[in-house]
Amino acid sequence: MFPRGREIVLGVAGSISAYKSCELLRHLQDQGFLITVVPTRASLKFVGVATWEALSHRAVADDLWNNVQEVPHVALGKKADVVVIAPATADLIARIAQGRADDLLTNIVLTATCPIIIVPAMHTEMWLNEATKQNVKTLRSRGFIVIDPEVGKLTGEDVGAGRYPKSKVIVQATQDALKSKADYLGKKVLISAGGTRESIDPVRYIGNRSSGKQGYALAYAAAKRGAEVTLIAANADLADIEGVKIIHVETAKQMQEVLVREFEDTDMVIMSAAVADVRPENPVSEKISKGGLKEIKVLPNDDILKALSTKKKNQVLVGFAAQTGSDGLNQAKDKLRAKGLDLLYFNDVTKTKIFGSDETEGILLDSNGGERKISRISKVTLADKILDLALHKLS
Fold this sequence. Notes:
The protein is of the alpha/beta class. The protein has 13 helices and 19 strands. The chain has helices at about 20-30, 50-55, 70-80, 90-95, 105-110, 125-130, 130-140, 165-180, 215-225, 250-265, 305-310, 330-340, 380-395; strands at about 5-10, 35-40, 80-90, 115-120, 145, 150-155, 160-165, 190-195, 200, 205, 230-235, 245-250, 270, 280, 300, 315-325, 345-350, 360-365, 370-380. The strands form five sheets. Strands 12-11-8-13-16-17-18-19 form an eight-stranded mixed β-sheet, sandwiched between helices. Strands 2-1-3-4-5 form a five-stranded parallel β-sheet, sandwiched between helices. The radius of gyration is 26 Å and the shape is elongated. The mean pLDDT is about 90.
């Protein structure tokens, strides 16, 4: 459901400075980006497929005719949040300016609707040639971001304009193009999602209607903003998120064990999972007959959030409350105070469809007494709103 955000297609052209893009790739990864390398055939004479795959941890896409059933020239362009072509040779710049599509990389350029950043690297004479200057002007007029090369030592004894820029310049241009910062970089975020199930017998269980979509949306958004995310998923039938550590559990006890184990080494806990309040006192290993289901004795499960709040040092705690009835908001406020939470998101599940939906609405409560009404929005959008406030609390 949620592809990991901050996706980059890193195009690499046939310049001797292609080796510098290995360092660039590392710096982009440090900012939380996931990278698919698309080298031109000529560039592979300088840096090979094995190097790119080892560094990116992904298969290299270098041929328009590989995996044709996946339509890579369209799929990669659509998936990318930004395309960075570094280095870009005079030849590649000319082909892009002409709108040509004679290899995988130029096909991706034509299909991508995201920002495209061009990083020229070539000899000074080529950079200053009128044809190259006109091609760069054309690309900029079409909305491409073209970073001017640096002045310095080039191949051989040459010195002048045309040198591959420093990685930090390219990374900053990438961040600026996305209008998003990795403001959670270096932060560890622990998120629970889904609904726990407490076994009655091998067929039946005590559970709830939580789909896990909100927790997965939070994990997606936090990872996109650079966080190191651990997602504890209880019975959520959703695809794993690339780059997020996911621990699958079933019961409240299993979830509690993981949360307690991970809690000390985390900066923030977002408890979006719906945890069963009770569990059967005597679950059995064989199916109970219909006539034997007259009574099920239950025991209360531990209050996980309250237990975590007693161990809290500098961590930020965020909770959720799905309530019904006219007193639901007051009950949510009581929960915020009683469990020592920094933020709590409340929704009235009698008024609108929340469980299983991709959208939500409710009220975001702050431990300082603030209330923010959330009109109908996507769960991914809500995730970013929660993360904005939670980061402020963390600061």
